[in-house]
Amino acid sequence: MTSVFVLTHTISYPYVAASRLLRYYEEQGLIASRRAPNGWRSYDERDVDRVRQIRGLLDVGLPTRIIRQILPCLGEPGDIHVSDASPEIIAALERERDRMTERIRLLVRNRDAIAAYLDTLRDRHAADQASGALRQRPSLGI
Q1: How far apart are CA 142 and CA 139, in angstroms?
Q2: Which spans in the chain are helix H?
Q3: Residue-wise burial string across 108-129, b where 16 or more C-beta atoms lie within 10 A, e elsewhere
Q4: What pLDDT is recorded for position 119?
Q5: What are the angstrom distances between the C-alpha of 10 and each of 5, 22, 45, 62?
Q6: At 63, is the secondary structure helix, strand, or coil?
Q7: CA dist., res. 106 & res. 112, Å (int)
């Protein structure tokens, strides 16, 4: 693989990962950078893809401890390579799946409540507009 020199601010900007998050990912063992002669961190294209994967997994609610365990099973973004997962990893992933399922249930309930509230507001607004329009019509004087 060809090594690409990518400055921390270059990788952080388009992938919504601040420099301090990249350092945190390194501390957690999720990515590894190399040091340029001037001491700056450098990343290759594989690291850029890895940051995308990490961000995606974090966005769905997985903690870094679980991400660290499943990263070896992931190839390119979207690819999953099944390996022999330990019972601990399977149990941890099942717990995370169940936690996400509950979170989704709560999000759907809250979304539905907001939608119902908006419908009520719109109906009330439409009724107010209609009753106000009736009151404000000019008399034809007939």
Answers
A1: 8
A2: 8-12, 19-27, 45-59, 64-70, 87-136
A3: eeeeeeeeeeeeeeeeeeeeee
A4: 96
A5: 10, 11, 12, 25
A6: coil
A7: 10
3-state SS class at 42: strand
What pLDDT is stored for residue 16 in this prediction? 45
Which two three-digit tokens encode residue 115? 């939608």
CA distance 86 to 89: 5
Count of C-beta atoms within a 10 Å radius of residue 45: 12
Q: 34: which strand partners?
A: 42
Is-contact 6 48, C-beta < 8 A?
yes
Whole-angstrom distance, CA of residue 64 vs CA of residue 23: 13
Q: What is the pLDDT of residues 1-55, one digit of tens each?
A: 434 444 454 554 454 467 888 889 999 989 988 888 888 888 888 888 888 889 8
